Amino acid sequence: MEISGFEKMTLTDYPGSVAAIVFTQGCNFKCPFCHNSNLICFKNGTIDENEILDYLSKRKKMLDGVVITGGEPTMQKDLVSFLNKVKELGLKVKLDTNGVKPEVLKKIIELNLIDYIAMDIKSSNNNYSVVSGVSVDLDKISESVKLIKESGLDFEFRTTVVKNYHTLNDLLGICEFVGKDSKYFLQNFESSSRVLDANLKGFTKDELLEMCAKLNEKFPNVKVRGI
Ligand code: SF4
What we know:
31% of the residues lie in helices and 21% in strands. With 227 residues, it is α/β, with parallel strands linked by helices.
Protein backbone atom coordinates (compact mmCIF):
# COMPACT_ATOMS: atom_id res chain seq x y z
CA MET A 1 0.00 0.00 0.00
CA GLU A 2 1.22 3.57 -0.64
CA ILE A 3 1.72 5.01 2.85
CA SER A 4 3.21 8.41 3.66
CA GLY A 5 2.46 8.87 7.32
CA PHE A 6 2.37 6.83 10.52
CA GLU A 7 1.52 7.80 14.09
CA LYS A 8 2.52 5.23 16.64
CA MET A 9 -0.26 5.97 19.08
CA THR A 10 -3.43 8.03 19.40
CA LEU A 11 -6.02 8.16 22.16
CA THR A 12 -8.40 10.38 20.20
CA ASP A 13 -8.83 9.08 16.64
CA TYR A 14 -10.45 5.71 17.34
CA PRO A 15 -13.31 6.24 19.83
CA GLY A 16 -12.70 4.21 22.99
CA SER A 17 -9.51 2.61 21.67
CA VAL A 18 -5.77 3.09 21.75
CA ALA A 19 -4.66 3.01 18.14
CA ALA A 20 -1.90 3.67 15.66
CA ILE A 21 -2.68 5.72 12.54
CA VAL A 22 -1.68 4.87 8.97
CA PHE A 23 -1.92 7.67 6.37
CA THR A 24 -2.30 6.47 2.78
CA GLN A 25 -1.01 8.49 -0.16
CA GLY A 26 -3.49 9.74 -2.79
CA CYS A 27 -7.02 11.10 -2.74
CA ASN A 28 -9.56 11.63 -5.51
CA PHE A 29 -11.02 14.71 -3.78
CA LYS A 30 -9.39 18.11 -3.45
CA CYS A 31 -11.17 19.68 -0.48
CA PRO A 32 -9.91 23.26 -0.08
CA PHE A 33 -9.79 22.75 3.70
CA CYS A 34 -7.81 19.50 3.59
CA HIS A 35 -5.32 19.28 6.44
CA ASN A 36 -3.39 16.51 4.73
CA SER A 37 -2.92 18.23 1.38
CA ASN A 38 0.50 16.59 1.00
CA LEU A 39 -1.39 13.28 0.80
CA ILE A 40 -3.74 14.25 -2.05
CA CYS A 41 -1.35 13.59 -4.94
CA PHE A 42 -1.19 10.00 -6.24
CA LYS A 43 2.44 8.95 -6.02
CA ASN A 44 4.58 6.39 -4.26
CA GLY A 45 4.36 6.40 -0.49
CA THR A 46 7.37 7.24 1.63
CA ILE A 47 7.01 4.47 4.21
CA ASP A 48 7.39 0.75 3.59
CA GLU A 49 4.26 -1.07 4.80
CA ASN A 50 6.44 -3.87 6.19
CA GLU A 51 8.04 -1.43 8.62
CA ILE A 52 4.59 -0.53 9.89
CA LEU A 53 3.44 -4.14 10.14
CA ASP A 54 6.65 -4.98 11.98
CA TYR A 55 6.03 -2.17 14.48
CA LEU A 56 2.39 -3.21 14.93
CA SER A 57 3.42 -6.79 15.51
CA LYS A 58 5.87 -5.75 18.24
CA ARG A 59 3.45 -3.33 19.92
CA LYS A 60 0.14 -5.13 19.44
CA LYS A 61 -0.29 -5.69 23.18
CA MET A 62 -0.22 -1.94 23.76
CA LEU A 63 -2.73 -1.17 20.99
CA ASP A 64 -6.40 -1.99 20.44
CA GLY A 65 -6.45 -1.10 16.80
CA VAL A 66 -5.28 0.82 13.76
CA VAL A 67 -6.88 3.81 12.05
CA ILE A 68 -6.47 3.76 8.28
CA THR A 69 -6.87 7.28 6.95
CA GLY A 70 -5.46 9.39 4.15
CA GLY A 71 -5.56 10.49 1.53
CA GLU A 72 -8.42 8.16 0.64
CA PRO A 73 -7.69 4.58 1.73
CA THR A 74 -10.29 2.99 -0.56
CA MET A 75 -8.29 4.21 -3.58
CA GLN A 76 -5.46 1.83 -2.62
CA LYS A 77 -5.33 -1.27 -4.83
CA ASP A 78 -3.99 -3.50 -2.08
CA LEU A 79 -6.13 -2.24 0.81
CA VAL A 80 -7.71 -5.68 1.32
CA SER A 81 -4.35 -7.37 1.55
CA PHE A 82 -3.07 -4.77 4.05
CA LEU A 83 -6.20 -5.02 6.20
CA ASN A 84 -5.87 -8.79 6.23
CA LYS A 85 -2.35 -8.46 7.60
CA VAL A 86 -3.49 -6.03 10.31
CA LYS A 87 -6.40 -8.28 11.31
CA GLU A 88 -4.05 -11.27 11.48
CA LEU A 89 -2.24 -9.40 14.26
CA GLY A 90 -5.50 -9.37 16.23
CA LEU A 91 -5.96 -5.60 15.94
CA LYS A 92 -9.23 -3.80 15.28
CA VAL A 93 -9.48 -1.50 12.26
CA LYS A 94 -11.15 1.88 11.91
CA LEU A 95 -11.42 3.16 8.34
CA ASP A 96 -11.79 6.85 7.48
CA THR A 97 -13.31 7.40 4.06
CA ASN A 98 -14.88 10.00 1.80
CA GLY A 99 -17.32 7.30 0.64
CA VAL A 100 -16.57 7.50 -3.05
CA LYS A 101 -15.88 3.77 -3.46
CA PRO A 102 -18.90 1.86 -2.12
CA GLU A 103 -17.76 -1.29 -3.94
CA VAL A 104 -14.56 -1.33 -1.86
CA LEU A 105 -16.48 -0.67 1.35
CA LYS A 106 -18.85 -3.52 0.52
CA LYS A 107 -15.98 -5.91 -0.02
CA ILE A 108 -14.13 -5.11 3.20
CA ILE A 109 -17.35 -5.19 5.22
CA GLU A 110 -18.24 -8.62 3.79
CA LEU A 111 -14.73 -9.89 4.51
CA ASN A 112 -14.98 -8.69 8.13
CA LEU A 113 -11.90 -6.55 7.72
CA ILE A 114 -13.17 -3.46 9.52
CA ASP A 115 -14.71 -2.71 12.88
CA TYR A 116 -15.48 1.00 12.69
CA ILE A 117 -16.18 3.29 9.74
CA ALA A 118 -16.01 7.08 9.81
CA MET A 119 -17.32 8.69 6.65
CA ASP A 120 -16.90 12.35 5.81
CA ILE A 121 -20.01 14.01 4.43
CA LYS A 122 -18.67 17.07 2.68
CA SER A 123 -21.86 19.10 2.36
CA SER A 124 -25.48 19.09 1.28
CA ASN A 125 -26.12 17.56 -2.13
CA ASN A 126 -26.23 20.95 -3.87
CA ASN A 127 -22.78 21.94 -2.65
CA TYR A 128 -21.05 18.58 -2.52
CA SER A 129 -18.80 19.05 -5.51
CA VAL A 130 -17.87 22.63 -4.57
CA VAL A 131 -16.75 21.59 -1.11
CA SER A 132 -14.96 18.46 -2.40
CA GLY A 133 -13.06 20.43 -5.05
CA VAL A 134 -13.99 17.90 -7.76
CA SER A 135 -17.14 16.68 -9.49
CA VAL A 136 -18.62 14.01 -7.20
CA ASP A 137 -20.96 11.16 -8.16
CA LEU A 138 -23.62 11.55 -5.44
CA ASP A 139 -25.06 8.11 -6.17
CA LYS A 140 -21.79 6.63 -4.90
CA ILE A 141 -21.98 8.74 -1.77
CA SER A 142 -25.59 7.63 -1.13
CA GLU A 143 -24.66 4.01 -1.73
CA SER A 144 -21.84 4.23 0.82
CA VAL A 145 -24.09 5.87 3.42
CA LYS A 146 -26.65 3.09 2.97
CA LEU A 147 -24.03 0.34 3.12
CA ILE A 148 -22.49 1.75 6.28
CA LYS A 149 -25.85 2.15 8.02
CA GLU A 150 -26.81 -1.42 7.16
CA SER A 151 -23.38 -2.91 7.95
CA GLY A 152 -24.07 -3.68 11.62
CA LEU A 153 -20.67 -2.08 12.38
CA ASP A 154 -19.98 0.84 14.64
CA PHE A 155 -19.91 3.96 12.48
CA GLU A 156 -20.09 7.72 12.39
CA PHE A 157 -20.64 10.44 9.84
CA ARG A 158 -18.87 13.75 10.21
CA THR A 159 -18.38 17.08 8.52
CA THR A 160 -15.53 19.53 8.77
CA VAL A 161 -17.51 22.75 8.96
CA VAL A 162 -16.03 25.80 7.23
CA LYS A 163 -17.61 29.23 7.55
CA ASN A 164 -16.91 30.03 3.89
CA TYR A 165 -18.80 26.93 2.71
CA HIS A 166 -21.38 25.66 5.20
CA THR A 167 -24.70 27.18 6.23
CA LEU A 168 -27.22 25.84 8.70
CA ASN A 169 -29.29 24.73 5.72
CA ASP A 170 -26.40 22.68 4.36
CA LEU A 171 -26.04 20.97 7.74
CA LEU A 172 -29.78 20.32 7.90
CA GLY A 173 -29.54 18.77 4.44
CA ILE A 174 -26.74 16.49 5.64
CA CYS A 175 -28.74 15.48 8.73
CA GLU A 176 -31.69 14.52 6.52
CA PHE A 177 -29.32 12.61 4.26
CA VAL A 178 -27.59 10.51 6.96
CA GLY A 179 -30.80 10.03 8.95
CA LYS A 180 -31.97 10.75 12.45
CA ASP A 181 -30.48 7.65 14.07
CA SER A 182 -26.93 8.09 12.78
CA LYS A 183 -24.11 9.44 14.92
CA TYR A 184 -23.12 12.68 13.23
CA PHE A 185 -20.30 15.00 14.31
CA LEU A 186 -19.55 18.59 13.38
CA GLN A 187 -15.81 19.26 13.43
CA ASN A 188 -14.79 22.87 13.24
CA PHE A 189 -12.28 23.85 10.58
CA GLU A 190 -8.99 25.12 11.96
CA SER A 191 -6.59 26.86 9.66
CA SER A 192 -3.02 25.67 9.27
CA SER A 193 -0.17 26.16 6.84
CA ARG A 194 -1.03 22.81 5.21
CA VAL A 195 -4.56 23.64 3.98
CA LEU A 196 -4.99 24.39 0.28
CA ASP A 197 -6.87 27.69 0.75
CA ALA A 198 -5.37 30.10 3.27
CA ASN A 199 -8.52 32.29 3.28
CA LEU A 200 -10.80 29.76 4.92
CA LYS A 201 -12.23 30.25 8.39
CA GLY A 202 -13.95 28.10 10.97
CA PHE A 203 -16.93 29.12 13.11
CA THR A 204 -16.65 30.55 16.61
CA LYS A 205 -17.42 28.13 19.41
CA ASP A 206 -20.71 29.94 20.11
CA GLU A 207 -21.76 29.88 16.45
CA LEU A 208 -21.06 26.18 16.24
CA LEU A 209 -22.91 25.33 19.44
CA GLU A 210 -25.85 27.45 18.32
CA MET A 211 -26.05 25.61 14.98
CA CYS A 212 -25.79 22.27 16.75
CA ALA A 213 -28.62 23.25 19.14
CA LYS A 214 -30.82 24.11 16.16
CA LEU A 215 -30.00 20.80 14.47
CA ASN A 216 -30.69 18.94 17.73
CA GLU A 217 -34.32 20.14 17.65
CA LYS A 218 -34.87 17.56 14.88
CA PHE A 219 -31.69 15.49 15.02
CA PRO A 220 -30.71 14.64 18.60
CA ASN A 221 -27.64 12.59 17.63
CA VAL A 222 -25.71 15.54 16.19
CA LYS A 223 -22.74 16.57 18.32
CA VAL A 224 -19.88 19.02 18.09
CA ARG A 225 -16.51 17.35 18.35
CA GLY A 226 -13.29 18.89 19.60
CA ILE A 227 -14.34 22.03 21.44
S1 SF4 B 1 -11.28 13.69 1.16
FE1 SF4 B 1 -10.02 13.98 2.98
S2 SF4 B 1 -7.91 13.55 2.30
FE2 SF4 B 1 -9.16 13.85 0.45
S3 SF4 B 1 -8.86 16.01 -0.07
FE3 SF4 B 1 -10.73 15.85 1.18
S4 SF4 B 1 -10.05 16.21 3.31
FE4 SF4 B 1 -8.21 15.75 2.05
